[in-house]
Amino acid sequence: MSVLLTGGAGFIGSHTAVVLIESGYDVVVLDNFSNSKPSVIGRIEQITGKPCPCEEADLSDGPLVDAVFRRHDFDAVVHFAGFKAVGESVEKPREYYENNLIGTLRLIEAMTRRGVKRMIFSSSATVYRADNPVPYYEDFPLGATNPYGWTKVMIERILCDVCAADPGWGAALLRYFNPIGAHPSGRIGEDPNGIPNNLLPYVSKVAGGELPLLHIFGDDYDTPDGTGVRDYIHVMDLARGHLLALGYMRDRRGAFPFNLGTGKGYSVREVVAAFEKVCGRALPVRVDPRRPGDLPSVYANADRARKELGFTARLGLDEMCADAWRWQKRREEADGATAE
Ligand code: UFG
User: Fold this and answer.
1) Are the beta carbons of 78 and 4 closer than 8 angstroms?
2) pLDDT at 194
3) How many Å apart are CA 118 and CA 228, to the nearest integer?
4) Which residue of 8, 25, 73, 94 is most buried, as measured by CB atoms within 10 A?
């Protein structure tokens, strides 16, 4: 079975590439490397011991994407490619709508022209309206609070409509909660440009001495210790979720949303404590005001993915932090050695 991974050099894409290749899939990565590095491809090949062909292309370039589809005979597409920074999307809404929506529409066109009608889409827990109670169920009302989130809601809608219009089409809409961790080899992991926005990359850089201290955004929420609670999921578990979704969609038509989370929330302070345990030292923190737009508590009801896909997260917070820390240390060594 041959699968195209758009954005396959990114954080979740690269881990999914490893899991799919190791499960016997023929994987082709398509990436424009706008927020990832070409060297990731070589690392995927090192880990798996198998080739990982890569096409450098931007999804907005219709003829180039068509050419990629003519060169290969794909059975399905896993669509990760897209801009993903919440704050940046508020400052540059046009760029977010253009990149994420137009890219997806070009991709659907190219797929349809070649008769490829299976997509696994990288959606997000951010598609749930902010006034929903926790835990989130797949049939809760959708909505978003920023342009990035709206692109996810809109792409889900587009895929539902494409599936309704063409009974040959099938799409899994995978709503990720908070993916963290790294491959246990320490060879691939999350590598955001500039100062990270998300908790784990920030904590890793504080532990590695690249940043002086962690700012905890509010400790006066109505949560057990007052700090924000999220459903962190190990990226290797998440990658396995894509493998299961590909199997599920093989003989199904229609659009199927799934939460991919653990169903359990951890607070910022719990994450910091788990990281301190693996890096062996206390991390400097300072409590700052709440970050605008943040919710007190977000976690999944994970029943549907368990029942339908057979998906249950296997790795806990300690493993997530241990793998993130190994990656942080190895990345520092690699950056120092190759200055890539
Ligand atoms: N936090 C801090 N300090 C930091 C960064 C984060 O205290 O430096 C706190 C936040 O306030 C929040 C928690 O850590 O309580 C997690 O924050 P993240 O930024 O890591 O993650 P979010 O839950 O805010 O957002 C993530 C993704 C989004 C996605 C959303 C889905 O980044 O892309 O989950 O719910 F839309």
Assistant:
1) yes
2) 87
3) 36
4) 8
Residue 218 has pLDDT above 80, yes or no: yes
Its pTM stands at: 0.97
Q: Distance between CA 186 and CA 257 in Å, rounded?
A: 31
Instruction: Sketch the domain layout of the chain as residue ranges.
Output: 2-180+232-261
Alpha helices for the chain (secondary structure H): 11-22, 39-48, 62-71, 86-91, 93-97, 103-113, 147-165, 199-207, 235-249, 268-279, 303-304, 317-338
Cα distance from N-terminal residue to C-terminal residue, the chain: 33
What digits encode the pLDDT tens for the residues 121-178?
Answer: 999 999 999 999 999 999 999 999 999 999 999 999 999 999 999 999 999 999 999 9
Ligand 1 geometric centre to CA of 149 (Å): 13
- How remote is the CA of residue 197 from the centroid of ligand 1, in Å? 7
**Phi and psi at residue 214, to the nearest 5°:** -90, 135
SS3 letters across 11-53? HHHHHHHHHHHHCCCEEEEEECCCCCCCHHHHHHHHHHCCCCC
148 given a catalytic annotation: yes
**Sign of torsion, CA 94 95 97 102?**
positive
Q: Which of 148, 152, 199, 290 to mutate to test the pocket of ligand 1 (most atoms within 8 A of CB)?
A: 199
Span 299-328, mean pLDDT?
98
pLDDT tens-digit map of 190-206: 988 889 999 999 999 99
Ligand 1 pocket by Cβ (under 6 Å): 84, 86, 124-126, 149, 178, 197-199, 202, 214-217, 228, 230, 268, 291, 294, 298
Q: What's the CA-to-centroid distance between 198 and ligand 1, angstroms?
A: 5
CATH architecture of structural domain 2-180+232-261? 3-Layer(aba) Sandwich (3.40)
Alpha carbon of residue 137 to chain centroid: 19
Summarize pLDDT for 57-73 with one digit per residue, the tens.
999 999 999 999 999 99
